[in-house]
Amino acid sequence: MSVVVDGHPAPLLRLEGVQKTFGPTRALKDANLTIPTGGVVHVLIGENGSGKSTLLGVLSGQIRHDAGTVSLEGRPVRFGSPVAALRHGVAMVSQEIAVAPDLSVAENVLLGRGQVRRWAGISRSASRSKAQGVLERLDFDVDPDCPVRRLRPDQRQMVEIARALTAEARILILDEPTSSLTDDEVGSLFATVRRLKAQGVAIIFVSHRMQELFEIADDITVLRDGVTVAEGSAASFTPESLVSAMLGEDPPAGREGGSAASAGVGSDDPVALRVSGLVVPGSVEDFRLDLRRGEIVGLAGLVGAGRSEVLESIFGARGHAAGTFEIHGKPYVPHGPRRAIAHGIGFVPADRKADGLVLGMSVGANMTMVDTHDAPRLAPPARGRGAATVARVAASLRLNPQLAETGTARLSGGNQQKVAVAKWLVRRPGVLLLDEPTRGVDVMAKADIHQELRAIAAAGSALLVNSSEIDELLTLCHRVLVMFRGRVVADLAVPDTDDSEILKLAGGQPC
């Protein structure tokens, strides 16, 4: 039974004056958040580095706060571990999906906490039945015996949500749940969120996509520099007021000033990258592209359309069965990232933690690692572009210069993404491949990244961008290649298309 305060039940969850310091860094200074009852979707928003990740860590038992109070139904709590948080009904699904791909759906749903035991050990039939019940609660129609590696990203996310529900979670934290999903998959996730809301679960939802926030939110809390600066019902905010609250000022003009198509690229501009007849078995069939200097081309399509496989093959990170390549008119054979870099090709991968960064190294070392990759090991530090270039790129992406010596693992996910992009901006390759380049970054950071990408294109680099956000492609690119089941089905000039046409083509419908 919850505590009664002034004749009213205490809020389901309340954080008051929460503080947390990591060495000289005050990640949380005065964080407050209130969820009055179950059955609501509470959005938490703030710039990268505002303290969101730390606050979620406190709530999920991964981080112990230094000061302030966390209360559940009026009773102060201090979680010593994620297990302790789960015992109190608080579960978190993080941005990086954590599943065991070789185990079945049922085994993943019950992993660590839900197996049904009998005198002779674990009852597989009873465990499967229990998992099936949780899946039905989510209206998630999937075979419990199916290996998780066969599932799409959104389906894997559903498995994680189902796992949280086996702990009878009353508060479910979803950290950037839509960052790697297509529009159709986002719609499916939102249907699940609304279903859980109707069942009385309170959901803390973190996202940087403004349109999504207003579609799903009941209430919003805004963090800035570790302090709660605004909170209230979603109806009391506008996109402009949210951005102003996040920045502490009016958003700067001209940061997202229309499509890159306004710059114009002519058919007589030299071809920087030519791909002919690329085949990746099971993923890509007869992919062709002429990417010109100064041009930004987008790749659109559903999950499994082959977009990422195209980028990985060009960079030499994935094998291919057929196809020829030219860089600035000269033959190029993809044979590993080192050769690609030597030919002036850069690549921002979709998974920044596994493929884009060395988390154990400092921010500064990550930003310069590509530019100095071919330097002798004992070469002096001045070998690269120099501190001035690194400082300029950091400033353009609003990365605090004091972070240079900070371990990259300590950054928020959004700031890690900035570093993953920044190391290539320092290098300024002739051809830059980008796979979900703004995944997990806030609205202003996205504008900063877009502006820098436009700048290097204007300086002569050619960019090939894969994004699940059609709005991003329409904002950033000159033209968009739409892929369906491994093939390019349309090559569209951005001024002559829109999101509805791209969505239809990506789903295999003729326009």
From TrEMBL:
GO molecular function: ATP binding
InterPro entries: AAA+_ATPase, ABC_carbohydrate_import_ATPase, ABC_transporter-like_ATP-bd, ABC_transporter-like_CS, P-loop_NTPase
Xref: CDD domains: ABC_Carb_Monos_I, ABC_Carb_Monos_II
Domain ABC transporter: 13-250, 265-510
Keyword field: ATP-binding, Cell membrane, Membrane, Nucleotide-binding, Repeat, Sugar transport, Translocase, Transport
Cited SUPFAM superfamilies: P-loop containing nucleoside triphosphate hydrolases
Residues covered by region (Disordered): 247-266
Name of the protein this chain belongs to: Sugar ABC transporter ATP-binding protein
Lineage of origin: Bacteria, Bacillati, Actinomycetota, Actinomycetes, Propionibacteriales
